[in-house]
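pasting input
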Amino acid sequence: MKCQHCEKPATFHITELTGDEPDELHLCAEHAQDYLTPTSEHEESPPTLAGVLAQQLKLGQTAEELARLDQQVCPVCGITFYEFRHVGRLGCPHDYVCFEEELEPLIANIHGETKHIGKRPRRGGKSLDRQMELIRLGRDMKDAVEQEDYERASELRDEIHRIEQDDQS
Amino acid sequence: MKMEDLAGRCGEWLRGSGPESDIVISSRVRLARNLADFPFIRKCTDTDRATIEATLREKVLASGELAEMVYVDVANLETVDRQFLVERQLISREHAESDGARGVAIGVHEKSSLMINEEDHLRIQVMFSGLDLDKAWQQASRIDDFIEGQVTYAFHPIKGYLTACPTNVGTGMRVSVMLHLPALVITRQLEKVFRSLQKISLAVRGLYGEGSQAMGDFYQISNQITLGRPEEDLVKQVSEVVPVLIDYERRAREFLVNESHKDLHDQVSRAFGTLCSAQQISSEETMHLLSKVRMGVNLALIDNVDISTVNQLFIHTQPAHLQKLRGIELDTADRNIERARYLQRQLRGDSEAEKN
């Protein structure tokens, strides 16, 4: 495959994420360098979340792989990776677990570290699984109410109640 | 609480006292926390938001040392009142402009504020006048401990406190100092200084945070990194860079005094003259001129006004404050006239009674 801008062979295959749709670029080493070098304007402002994310995903993934990545859904809150990528905000604590693979390099890029050192809550609290279960049940209950399936909604409410009682005892 | 009760007072952050307060306006520590049982704000239903607000409001404010905080239901405030809280830095612009159940608990002397349902469920903020980050961190941590005794936070053993935006994950902590740097602006050294700060992962923002312009030559310096370092290190990193910036600003002021005393004295006096005699004046121009006057007072080039009056004017001449102090709503043109009158009264001492 030839470079899109000259006759040299394309050795860099880049997927651009800044537009609405992923866009594939095929460039030679020289043009790829031009393309990936930030302009002086960018250098002065600190990296934004969307910028870091786009830069990170740009390399090494095809449009197809990205499209598949974008469709991943958090089973707890229902956010897609695409939605997170666009708004820069996660939907619930479980996203840190279910999108872990994609978030890990992003977090390393922003903070230079991936492990928390410092303050911790003194109380053990509920396990993360238990917390996520509550969020998921809450969402199911809302869906059941919307579908006017009140029997199911009431079951779910009892279930939530039971878990909350367990936690307090 | 009535906004009018706050309006006449100055609030902690512009009190203009404390260590190095000619250059360091305030020290601030903010902790981002989320409740474990709910989705983050973006995926909250109206009911979720209302429940989070009620839970935090009741459990946190009904007992213990936080009971003396005053709670304001931000969702039901008039636009001018929300703007008023933004001008005082008690809530963020994002919090003022968003929708749905949300509120803020304000501590004594406005040294602390707890924003509920901002970008995260809870944002604990502690502010002190001058350079005092250690004390601000200790106080924020104490409030955090107290709230943690009442609710369960979203916490991951490896990732730390979980936040809606991965840029805040880990400690959830933002440590910042607000600096007044007029001489670095005049001598055009600011860009260079800021570039070197960015290299060590410190962010620079304007007076009202993200995306706001550097009004009145005020700049906030804060940590960019929140994960992988203990809170004390983050406090230390910002604390250590501040004396360097203070030194730069003092040297730039010294340079101006030595090398272009006449120009500087002229600029400062003209700024003061305009503020004392303008018949209508915008908020931007006021901030710009007050900044020069503030430096003039600190360098003893102006002696008939004190620094606390100048500090107070920075906040009292802003749109919502002006309207609250006057007690009526005013459009932009009327505000510009009212602002000029207010400045005259305060700076020329036409009416001593207005000075509180």
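fyi Chain A touches chain B at residues 44, 46, 49, 76-79, 87-93, 96-97, 103, 106-107, 110-123, 125-126, 128, 131, 134-135, 138-139, 142 (CB under 8 Å).
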